[in-house]
Amino acid sequence: MVVQTQHELIRLALLLLLENPQGLPLFPTGQGLGLFPKNSLGKQAAKAALSQIWITQKHGCEDEGFLFQPAPRGLAWLLESNCVVPILKACLAFLPKVNQDSETGKVLTPLQNALRLFFAGKDQQGQAGLPQSVLKELHLWRNSRALGDFPLDRLFQIIRDRFPGLPIGAFHDALRQLAREKFIELHPWTGPLYQIPSPELALLTGHEIAYYASASGEVKEYSTSPSCEKTLDVYLEQPS
Description:
Blueprint: H1 6-19, H2 40-51, E1 55-57, E2 68-70, H3 72-80, H4 84-94, H5 103-126, H6 130-143, E3 150-151, H7 152-162, H8 168-180, E4 184-188, E5 203-205, E6 208-215, H9 229-236
Antiparallel strand pairs: 1-2, 3-6, 4-6, 5-6
Helix pairs in contact: 1-2, 1-4, 4-5, 5-9, 6-8
């Protein structure tokens, strides 16, 4: 990802500090991490973060050089900048570093479990509607009177635009589900295997290698799982 603004650099620096509670220097030193890149934009962002008191120097670390930590104002700005999910992910990465036998660890363990359930629900929610989206695309293909069946590589490209980061395995699972429920038909590749354009998208069905799909029924709505937005709240509200 290309970072283009000071605020984006500062946001990433604050998230980096959440993942590294021991503190980090402003700029990379040797092979170590730094909060900002050593270019003009990075220096401007570091100056802005310090002047706004979004980061502060960490005391008691003189032997390790000048290290910095997030300031309360910086965390407040981070929350206001609509990046709650990255903050929670940073917290989830930090929690295993806490001594689980300590009093703090005992208090934070339920939070760690809740965060894991929350993000598990997020992943499922992110793919909700995937089979329905695949089915609708196949119906559009059929209704357009296009010749032949829909190649899986082209279908995957279209679906992935709607579900960024979609794993091929999830795409294959959706195809299997639709085929199992008789909504679509999967068709084999009939040429030499070495000529398959994208072999990783080919799907093994029985003794055949499927590389095409077609719609075989009416479009029907798929039920979606309950929203995962409540997952974290439910577990955090449990009595300790």
